[in-house]
Design a protein that fits this description.
With 99 residues, this protein is mainly alpha-helical. It has one domain. The protein is built from 3 helices and 2 strands. Strands 1-2 form a two-stranded antiparallel ribbon. Helix 2 packs across helix 3. It is elongated and about 65 Å long.
Protein backbone atom coordinates (compact mmCIF):
# COMPACT_ATOMS: atom_id res chain seq x y z
CA UNK A 1 0.00 0.00 0.00
CA UNK A 2 2.89 2.35 0.80
CA UNK A 3 4.34 1.90 -2.69
CA UNK A 4 1.00 2.71 -4.29
CA UNK A 5 0.58 5.90 -2.26
CA UNK A 6 4.13 6.96 -3.16
CA UNK A 7 3.35 6.35 -6.84
CA UNK A 8 0.17 8.45 -6.63
CA UNK A 9 2.04 11.26 -4.90
CA UNK A 10 5.11 11.37 -7.17
CA UNK A 11 3.33 10.83 -10.49
CA UNK A 12 0.58 13.40 -9.90
CA UNK A 13 -2.19 10.87 -10.43
CA UNK A 14 -4.68 12.88 -8.38
CA UNK A 15 -4.05 15.96 -10.52
CA UNK A 16 -4.47 13.87 -13.64
CA UNK A 17 -7.77 12.49 -12.34
CA UNK A 18 -9.04 15.98 -11.50
CA UNK A 19 -8.00 17.21 -14.96
CA UNK A 20 -9.78 14.28 -16.59
CA UNK A 21 -13.00 14.95 -14.68
CA UNK A 22 -12.87 18.68 -15.41
CA UNK A 23 -12.10 17.94 -19.06
CA UNK A 24 -15.32 15.95 -19.31
CA UNK A 25 -17.26 18.83 -17.80
CA UNK A 26 -15.65 21.35 -20.15
CA UNK A 27 -16.52 19.08 -23.04
CA UNK A 28 -20.20 19.12 -22.02
CA UNK A 29 -20.18 22.92 -21.71
CA UNK A 30 -18.53 23.28 -25.13
CA UNK A 31 -21.03 20.89 -26.74
CA UNK A 32 -23.87 22.96 -25.29
CA UNK A 33 -22.23 26.19 -26.51
CA UNK A 34 -21.82 24.79 -30.01
CA UNK A 35 -25.26 23.13 -30.24
CA UNK A 36 -27.30 25.85 -28.54
CA UNK A 37 -25.55 29.06 -29.59
CA UNK A 38 -22.99 28.69 -32.39
CA UNK A 39 -24.93 26.27 -34.63
CA UNK A 40 -28.14 28.35 -34.68
CA UNK A 41 -26.15 31.47 -35.57
CA UNK A 42 -24.31 29.57 -38.32
CA UNK A 43 -27.65 28.20 -39.47
CA UNK A 44 -28.99 31.73 -39.88
CA UNK A 45 -25.84 32.86 -41.71
CA UNK A 46 -25.78 29.81 -43.98
CA UNK A 47 -29.53 29.91 -44.52
CA UNK A 48 -30.02 26.52 -42.89
CA UNK A 49 -32.50 26.68 -40.09
CA UNK A 50 -32.80 23.85 -37.62
CA UNK A 51 -30.20 21.38 -36.43
CA UNK A 52 -26.92 21.72 -38.31
CA UNK A 53 -26.01 18.07 -37.65
CA UNK A 54 -28.85 16.89 -39.88
CA UNK A 55 -27.60 18.72 -42.98
CA UNK A 56 -26.57 16.48 -45.83
CA UNK A 57 -25.78 16.45 -49.51
CA UNK A 58 -27.15 13.73 -51.75
CA UNK A 59 -24.97 12.73 -54.68
CA UNK A 60 -26.51 9.87 -56.62
CA UNK A 61 -27.32 7.21 -54.06
CA UNK A 62 -24.79 8.52 -51.51
CA UNK A 63 -25.93 10.70 -48.62
CA UNK A 64 -23.03 12.84 -47.38
CA UNK A 65 -23.70 13.99 -43.81
CA UNK A 66 -21.55 17.13 -43.82
CA UNK A 67 -23.52 18.76 -41.00
CA UNK A 68 -22.36 16.26 -38.38
CA UNK A 69 -18.75 16.66 -39.53
CA UNK A 70 -19.08 20.45 -39.39
CA UNK A 71 -20.56 20.23 -35.88
CA UNK A 72 -17.72 17.96 -34.68
CA UNK A 73 -15.13 20.28 -36.24
CA UNK A 74 -16.65 23.29 -34.49
CA UNK A 75 -16.60 21.34 -31.19
CA UNK A 76 -12.90 20.60 -31.69
CA UNK A 77 -12.01 24.20 -32.54
CA UNK A 78 -13.86 25.60 -29.52
CA UNK A 79 -12.30 23.01 -27.16
CA UNK A 80 -8.83 23.70 -28.61
CA UNK A 81 -9.32 27.46 -28.12
CA UNK A 82 -10.54 26.99 -24.54
CA UNK A 83 -7.54 24.78 -23.72
CA UNK A 84 -5.07 27.09 -25.46
CA UNK A 85 -6.27 30.29 -23.80
CA UNK A 86 -6.76 28.52 -20.46
CA UNK A 87 -3.19 27.24 -20.47
CA UNK A 88 -1.86 30.65 -21.56
CA UNK A 89 -3.92 32.56 -18.96
CA UNK A 90 -2.86 30.27 -16.10
CA UNK A 91 0.76 30.30 -17.25
CA UNK A 92 0.90 26.52 -17.42
CA UNK A 93 2.83 26.64 -20.67
CA UNK A 94 5.89 27.91 -18.78
CA UNK A 95 6.01 25.16 -16.14
CA UNK A 96 8.11 22.64 -18.07
CA UNK A 97 10.50 25.13 -19.66
CA UNK A 98 13.95 25.50 -18.07
CA UNK A 99 14.77 28.97 -16.79
Amino acid sequence: MKGFLEFVRTQGVVGLAVGFILGGSVSNVVKSLVNDIINPVLGIILGATGDLTEKSLTVGSANIMYGNFLNTTIDFIVIALVVYFGVKKLGLDKLDKPK
